[in-house]
Every structure is written in structure tokens, then in C-alpha cells.
Amino acid sequence: MAVVLMATWEALSRWVVAATPHTMVSALVSGGPVSLVYGFILALIGALATAASLGEMASMYPTAGGQYHFIAKLAPEQCRYMISWLVGWIGTFGWVAFTASAPFLAATMIQGLVVLNYEEYQAKRWHGTLIYWALLAISAVVNIWGARLISLIENASSLIHLAAFVAEFVVIWVCAPTKHSASFVFTLFRNESGWSSNGVAWSIGYDGAIHLSEEMTNAEVAVPWCMLGSLAINGMLGFAFLLTVLFCMGDFEAALNTATGFPIIQIFYSITGSAAGSAAMTSMLIIMAGLATIPLTASTARMLWSLTRDRAFPFSTYLSIIDKKTSLPVRSVFTTSGFLVLLGLINIGSTTAFNAILSLAVLGLHMSYLIPTGFMLWRRLHTPEILAYGPWKLGKNGCRSEHCFHPVSVLHLHLHGLSPVPAGVCRQHELCLADFWWSAYCKLDILAVEGTKGV
């Protein structure tokens, strides 16, 4: 499930090589190939460290609430409930936005293919929203009435995920008419982002297994290995796909200025020389984005259900009820789907606003990772006797893992952008939010070093 949920190499086709009004700030524009290559490596190291730390906590406390339950166990007594509630809401909002990104990617890619094959077609925002809603409806139906099929769908998705990678990897390398030099891939830097320094994109979503831990067998061991395994597999596939695209993408400017809204579609067209070939390769990405919507919805619904079970969400008594026939949190699935449908209305008014909300998935999820790992580090250094480790533990490597993740995560929070702006224009509201979390991180580290008993 986690491998399909992350779908790193497919996601790279949008978040790494996308740069039009339909999408967020492009990594190619905000640094170029060099920032992608080295940024990906740095992101993977930070993500592995994060997953290891979260996996250890999941082994100790295997609950659907995940990070906010970890806070309730690890934070000082005088502030644990407030911080736990805050992290629960931040994480849930991040998961809702993260879930919306998959069907939105599939919907807008479908529009891009129509533009490629029918030049007279005028892509409208409401067209994409209708497709987005259709994918959400399919996901909700499968999660509620087709629960028995989810395991089969996930296994099939994993096979498609790997088979599609091999197929596209071979086609790109064999059919690409020209290839860029190693200096283009590993040394070329360009910055049109509006910032005076690099920015990098990070991997998220690997905590999805945590929120299904109450439905897993031997979750104390299975969840940590699931998280690390999905990161390792997707990390290797993602990096290989990234290098493949950078070496074989052809005309840099043509890819960025494509009318389809997706440089990856233009790259496929340049490589295959035909609209049909580009459509076939892009269809694999669309299928995977659509399939990823199902486990994303499942994880988000469990996160919401956990909040309602702990009476931390409006109408908790009603929403926390488990359906007797299916033994599933059906009302939470409906509520999650309803939130996602409402998000689609924003896209009808403004794609930029919708993309800004989707980008909060990265910000929100990283916040939900940062805070519990900070408290885990604090407890590990100064009150280790209260930690009841599960069967999966890091031992002495725990501190190294948490120290590795924190600087990377805080750097990401500090530089993360919510929407494209002209060069030279700074995002003051984002800096204020990032500075707040930078201050919180510094406070946690000071407490960890000094051994202060409260926060």
C-alpha cells in the first residue's frame, strides 16, 4: 500500500518537471537539474531518517492517530494535550490536501493529453474539477463497498507501478533522439523562482501505513518496515527516473513552455515523435495517480476517524461510529470525500489558490513529523526510563536519526513556497510561519540539550 501511495517516480512527472499556470513552482525553474539531483538525494536521506524515527514510535504506539498519539505519550504533561490536538489537526489537514493531489494530477493530465491530441480544445478549470470529482467518487465507492477488493487493487497497483517504470525507462533511453551531457544534469543551475537561494522538494506520505496500523497484523513490526521499504523502493525508482528524464528530456525551453500544461507530456512527445506514444506513456502516470487515490483516501479517513474517536473533531460522536456491516469507518470516509469535493470547488475559481492549498500538504505533514521526533529526541536524551520501546527500535542510532531529520525538515519549512511569484518578490507570510517553526525547533533542541523538564 505504502509503495503505491507514495508513487515517487510518477509524482516526479508533475512536481519535479512541471512549470505552467496549471501547477506549482517548478523545480526546474527554481534551481534547474543540479537542484533536482542533489535535492533529491538530500530529501531521501532526510525522509529515511524521519521514517526510521516515526517507525520506532509506531512500534511503541501502533494507533491510527499516529503522530498526535505519539505527542500525547512523549510531550510534557502540562502541554501534551494542546500540542497533541494541534498536531492532529495539522496532520489531518495535510493528509486531506495530500490526498487531493493525486486525483487532481490525474484529472489535469487527462486535460493535457486532450490538448496534445486536439489543438482546438480549450482546457477549462471546471472540466478538470469534474474529472477530479469522478475519481474521488470511485475511490469512495471502493473504500466503502469494495473493501474486500482493496488488497487485490493494491497488489495490482504495485505490479503496474513497477512494470510501468521498466517500460518507460526502456522507451525513454532507447527512443530519445538526443541526450544531454553529464554537466547539464549534474552542474547546470538556474534560478527564476524569486528567491536568492536554492529550494528543494521533499518526499512525503510514507506515514500512511501508521494510520492503518490498527487493521494490520503484527503492526509493531510491519508498520516500520513498510515505511522504510516503501521509501527505499520509491527512492531508487524515483532517482533513476529523475536522471533518465534529465538526460533525455531534449529541448529544455520547449518542455517548460508546452501548451499541454505538463512538460513531461511534451518530453514524451519529443522522445516518441507521436501523440499516440506520448498518450500511452502518460496514461501510465494517470492510472497510477488514480489508483493512489484509493489508499490515500483510506489513510486520511482513518486519521480523521482517530480524531473523532478521541473527541477532537466536531460531531465526533456521530463520525466515530464504525459501520456494523463492513466494520469500517464509513462516515469518516464520506466526510473525507466531502472535504475533497469541496476543495475541488476552489479550483473552479482559481487553480493558483487550489495549488496553494495542495502545497500545504507538504508543510502540514512535515510539521506533524517534526514535532513528535523532537519530543522523542528530548525523551531519549533525558528521560529514557519512561520509554517503553516496541520490538522495532533504533537503539543508539535513534539520536543520530532524529538529529539528521530535524535540520533537513526545518530547512524545508523555511524555504517552502506556497505559490509562484515574480522574481524579487518575497513571501512574507510564509517566512513568518516558517520562522515560527524554526523557533519551535530551536526551543526543542535547547531543551533536549539542557535537560529542561517542561516546554
UniProtKB/TrEMBL annotation:
UniProt KW keywords: Membrane, Transmembrane, Transmembrane helix, Transport
Protein localization: Membrane
Primary location: membrane
Example of a GO MF term: transmembrane transporter activity
A Pfam family assignment: AA_permease_2
Record-annotated membrane-spanning stretches: 34-54, 83-110, 130-147, 159-176, 222-247, 254-272, 284-307, 328-346, 352-371
Entry keyword annotation includes Membrane: yes
GO cellular component terms attached to this protein's record: membrane
Topological category with respect to the lipid bilayer: Multi-pass membrane protein
Protein name per the record: GABA permease, putative
Species of provenance: Aspergillus fumigatus (strain CBS 144.89 / FGSC A1163 / CEA10)
